[in-house]
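Supplementary Methods, section 5.1.

A reviewer requested that the exact input to the structure prediction be made available. We therefore reproduce it here, unchanged from the version used in the analyses.
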Amino acid sequence: MKILAILFVTVSSLIISFTNTNTIEVNITHEQNQIKKAYFASGCFWCVEAIYERTKGVINVTSGYAGGHTKNPTYESSNTGRTGHAESVEVTYNADEISFATLVDIYYATQNPFQFNGQGPDKGSQYRSIIFYNSKEEKNIAWNKKKALEISSKQKVASEIKLFEKFWPAENYHQDYEKNHPNHPYIKNVSKPRIYKFTSRFPDLVK
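The structure derived from this sequence is encoded token-by-token as follows.
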């Protein structure tokens, strides 16, 4: 009986179908459905990537570009401010462990939400703040949190709320930049203070 119980638990989350060719098709339903992606722009992507990489429930973070009108943007082209793209991150997360709403809470708590077209020393449309949404539910969450912050602060919040269209990964040398260059002056003076905002305000969410 114990063996049967173990086998039942092992296969209970799988849908197995046998075809005429004696192959086995396995669909992992619930777990796959809970792996989601969220997209944020909030100044330099080095900072934002490092924050979400430290977040429980987050599986992977990629730095890149989104929100613009040109194809295949590069760091050099996006820095001109003429591509429409902003430095962004793609956050792959397990929705069983962390929600989109909590990711938005972290987003607002680790930036200056009232700074338009930039964050800290980084200024220009390529550093503007954007919450991208993939569904009506995500759009409502983003708008409600933005409006609540505006009401509580009595200030206009800078972040755009925009339908996600496409994410372009950044060059390899930008990936895991804070992790690979901990002594870089920018990392020490700009990224680290933003990371500290996260770890101090959300200690229960730190990996």
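The CA atoms of residues 131 and 161 lie 5 Å apart. These observations are discussed further in the main text.
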